[in-house]
Structure formats: C-alpha cells, structure tokens
Design goal:
By secondary structure, the protein is an alpha/beta fold. Helices cover 34% and strands 14% of the residues. The N and C termini lie close together (11 Å).
C-alpha cells in the first residue's frame, strides 16, 4: 500500500506541444528533411544519447535526466487518434478513447483514495476552471486561481461583514433536502466553504529559500508547494501551461513557454528537496497530441503521437517506448504512429505510486512501464 504522503503533480502542456521539437531526434537526418524551417539545430540540442536530445529552452529536463530522475515516455498516444483539441484532451482526461466519458481519471482516483469525501482537499487544481481530469460526481475538488487571495469573499476586510456573508452563503448552499440539483448545489457549497478556509492557511505556514519567478506556471507551482508543505492531506495537484497550439510562429511561441516551464520546474524541485519531500513527489507532464511531422514553413499543424515526462527522485530515469519512425512509409497520414498507450503510463503511476487498482480508473488493463519500482 502506498504511503499517504505520496503525491502526484500533473502539469498539462495545453494546445499540443510539439514532441519532435521537445525530444529532438537530432541524430536522424530525416528530422531535418521533414523540418526545413521549424527545427532545433543539431548543435543546440542537449543530448540524452546519440539519437535523442532535449530542446535547449528546457535545460532542467537535461539536468534532472543527468541525475537519473526523468523518464521520457516516447510515442505516447492511443488508437484511432483525434486531431481535435477538445476530443483529444477529453480522451486524455477521462481515459476513454472510444466514447465520451462521464468522469475524469484523477477524479476517479481521488474517489478511490477518499471514498467518503472526508477531505475536500484530496485533489486541488491550480488555475482557472476545473480540468475534466479532476471532475467526478461526488468528488470535491478545489480550484484555486490565486492562493494568496483565495477564499470566499476575501476582499471583505471587515471580519464581521465577511462572517455575515459566509453565513448567508452557507444558508443558501448548505441546505439539504429537495430536488437533486439543490442537493448537488448544497454539497458543492459546503465543500467550497470548508476547502476555502483551509487553503487560506497554507501561505502563512510556508517558508522557503527558493525565489520563484513571476510567470503563471511558476506561481502555480509555488502554490502547490505551499499546500503540499502545509500537510493538508492533498494527494493530487493539477496545473496547466499553454498555449502550445503553434500553427504559425512556432519557434518563438514554444521557446517562450518552455523558458517559463524550465525555471519554474527547477524551483519547484529545489523547493521539494529543501523541505525533505523529494521522495514523496512524482510529476507527470503531458500534452494532448504531438504535431505533424512536416512543418508548414512557420509552424506545425495538429498531429498524433507525442511524448510525456515523468519526473522525480523516485523515478527510474531513462527512455520508455520507442521513438516513432520518421520513415515516410511508417507514418500515418503524415503523422507519427503511436506505439505506447497513454493508459500504460497512467496505470503505472496509479498502481506503483498511488497504491490504487488502475483497471477501473483507466477502463482496462494495460502494461506497466518500469519508470517506477513495483
């Protein structure tokens, strides 16, 4: 059984990050044939081996790789892929490629970890809105835009007025009985009340020698660290970085985003070590699909197979899955062919890290990868 201290941090690279320009097949001349304009030059790549290397704008991956703490998941995807952002992300979020799912895989995982919803903060999203991956009926998940100002009616300086407003809110949404909609609203409101006041305490408990940057992803990772170190019982943390939808002007667009990600991830992993939590945290970074093999002169269009990263001290670093062939005969409608079902990565994390039975969460039984020990 996994320790209750084990946490999963998910970073979604929204919009379809270009896999070929992130994990660069710099040793394969076909890459430069397919990418005459939108490419990473061989001399700029940060080598992982003689064939593959990392985009120079995200050097933290290379640094953590050298420490043995990065698993690069190659050729990840699913059968009958979609090039639609909405459908592809829905598939990744629900782990249901063949139908429209009704619950997110992480929401189901939170339900398994806390079936009676005793802790409304078992799962927390950092950013606007609630990702589909975290949504599941009966599962409370807090969604935090800014932890420093998070809470219900935080702008009310006068404590009496705030307490009065909260009391009204509780009466409106805390009532039980009546129709199903009212019941759901009542539970949602009660959970919001409990979660907001608990989360407001996290920044005041936090002290660190790490200075995070001002980017949204840096501040979200800082907020994750604050909640993690406050020991509020949170097991699943979610945040996003985007938009990687680079049909035009891709090189500067992707470069800017990766340059935001790299120092933020370095600060977060340093913060974890400073607080002695490095053995308790695994980070998953993914995107809904890769980009097309041939560039369009300025960018790349929606593709199929992509890549993912699993990062952390507990991770057995290395390459997992095969980098898809760039030979024209092996492509599918000009896209990379997947060889590694994304639910294998999910299953490995769920069972080997979180101590959960993966089959009902990912809707099937999938081979484990060895980036985490049994």
């Amino acid at each position: 059984m996994a320790s209750n201290h084990r946490s999963l941090v998910v970073i979604q690279l929204s919009g379809g990050n270009d896999y070929m320009n992130t994990v660069v097949p710099y040793g394969n001349g076909l890459y430069y044939d397919w990418r005459p304009s939108v490419r990473i030059e061989q001399g700029d790549v940060l080598p992982l081996d003689d064939d593959l290397g990392i985009n120079p704008d995200v050097p933290v991956i290379k640094e953590l790789w050298d420490q043995g703490n990065v698993a690069v998941i190659n050729g990840i995807g699913y059968a009958n892929p979609s090039r639609s952002h909405f459908r592809a992300m829905d598939i990744w979020h629900t782990a249901e490629p063949d139908r429209v799912g009704d619950a997110g895989w992480l929401g189901r995982a939170v339900r398994e970890m806390d079936p009676t919803a005793e802790n409304v903060l078992t799962g927390v999203n950092f950013g606007r809105g609630l990702p589909r991956a975290m949504a599941c009926k009966g599962v409370p998940v807090a969604s935090v835009g800014n932890l420093e100002t998070y809470g219900l009616f935080p702008d009310k300086v006068d404590e009496w007025n705030r307490r009065y407003a909260l009391e009204c809110f509780a009466k409106m949404y805390g009532a039980r009985g009546g129709d199903a909609v009212r019941e759901v609203l009542g539970q949602t409101g009660s959970d919001a009340l409990k979660g907001a006041d608990i989360l407001r305490t996290a920044p005041g408990k936090y002290s660190s020698g790490v200075e995070y940057g001002s980017s949204d992803i840096a501040q979200n990772l800082k907020a994750i660290a604050q909640v993690m170190f406050a020991d509020l019982g949170t097991r699943v943390y979610y945040t996003q970085l985007g938009n990687f939808d680079s049909h035009a002007g891709q090189l500067p667009v992707q470069s800017k985003l990766l340059k935001e990600l790299s120092p933020a991830l370095r600060d977060f992993t340093d913060d974890i070590k400073e607080h002695g939590r490095e053995n308790d945290v695994v980070i998953l970074m993914f995107s809904e699909f890769g980009r097309r093999v041939r560039d369009n002169g300025s960018g790349t269009d929606h593709g199929w197979a992509g890549g993912a990263f699993v990062v952390g001290e507990p991770v057995a670093g290395g390459l997992y899955g095969e980098y898809p062939s760039l030979n024209e005969a092996d492509l599918v409608e000009g896209d990379l062919r997947f060889n590694n079902d994304f639910r294998s990565t999910y299953s490995t994390i769920l069972e080997r890290w979180m101590g959960l039975e993966a089959t009902p969460i990912v809707n099937g039984s999938f081979e484990h990868l060895d980036f985490l020990p049994n």
